[in-house]
Design goal:
The protein is an alpha/beta fold and 275 residues long. The protein has one domain: Metal-dependent hydrolases (TIM Barrel, Alpha-Beta Barrel), CATH 3.20.20. The protein has a 5-stranded parallel beta sheet with strand order 1-2-3-4-7. A two-stranded antiparallel sheet has the order 5-6. Helix 4 runs parallel beside helix 5.
């Protein structure tokens, strides 16, 4: 049924990682908004991370609180216990209802440093300077190679495919129109296709003021459509008021690019929704 995509939000973060609201606050907001499915996707414990991922103790608390909410909202709102699993995580995605496979780090080949590529400009600048000889596109290539590795794990959803561009507005660190950028991204798309991945169309870069386009951008979405790829619309919400931010705009963009449906994740898995 058309419009079903508006009733499912499955890329959602709480205060247990880097979100602004509690799990309870997110659940009641989703229920009041008439959502059918709310999927929590806390950032997986990742040893190299020092700021935004769940600790092991918070992971246990997360699972317990989500289990309680599942009971509390039974028959009113389907709640899923998901995980945004990072390539360098030591958590087991099989222990969750679903997982979003993502890349947030590039490892420096010279220093062994784990650089977070989507938050501080200084981190990305240092990555380029100290580990990639000033070549920003080499970092892009390393990033998309990591995305291909995540795709090979066959996550339920492949998260924000081109997150590397998040803080690159105005091509500050590398040229997104470069053939090298396109080739690296195409490699990640090929890996996604080979592994039957569902790509998310993620509105968070727009919501948070970093970008004017979705993750992934128009060119990659057009390529994915030509490859017969499947997509799911997400908000990557870090606060309750963003649970379905940009959904209609994403649907309109996808339709303009030739998609006639999107996938919607619910308690019984994916179902196609006409656009």
């Amino acid at each position: 049924m058309a419009g079903e995509y508006k009733l499912s939000s499955v890329h959602v973060h709480s205060k247990l990682c880097d979100g602004k609201n509690t799990l309870d606050e997110l659940a009641v907001t989703a229920w009041r908004a008439g959502l059918r499915t709310l999927g929590f996707s806390g950032h997986s414990h990742t040893p190299c991370d020092i700021e935004y991922c769940m600790t092991k103790s918070r992971t246990a608390l997360y699972k317990a609180q989500v289990a309680k909410l599942k009971e509390q909202y039974a028959g009113k709102l389907d709640i899923l216990c998901g995980l945004e699993w990072d390539l360098f995580s030591d958590d087991d995605p099989a222990a969750y209802d679903y997982c979003i496979g993502s890349v947030h780090y590039v490892v420096g080949p010279k220093t062994g440093t784990y650089y977070e590529i989507d938050f501080r400009e200084s981190d990305l600048a240092n990555c380029i300077r100290y580990d990639f000889d000033g070549d920003g596109l080499a970092v892009v290539e390393a990033y998309f190679a990591n995305v291909a590795k995540v795709a090979a794990k066959k996550p339920t959803i492949l998260g924000h495919l081109d997150l590397i561009k998040k803080i690159n507005a105005g091509n500050k660190f590398f040229d997104e129109s470069s053939p090298r950028y396109a080739a690296a991204a195409a490699g990640a798309l090929e890996a996604a296709a080979e592994n039957g991945c569902v790509l998310e169309v993620n509105s968070s870069g727009i919501y948070r003021g970093y970008r004017e386009d979705f993750f992934p951008g128009d060119a990659l979405l057009a390529q994915w459509r030509a490859m017969g790829g499947e997509v799911v619309i997400t908000a990557d919400a870090h606060e309750a008021k963003a649970l379905t931010f940009g959904y209609d705009e994403a649907a309109a963009k996808l339709k303009a690019l030739g998609f006639d449906h999107v996938q919607v994740l619910g308690k019984d898995g994916f179902a196609a929704c006409e656009l």
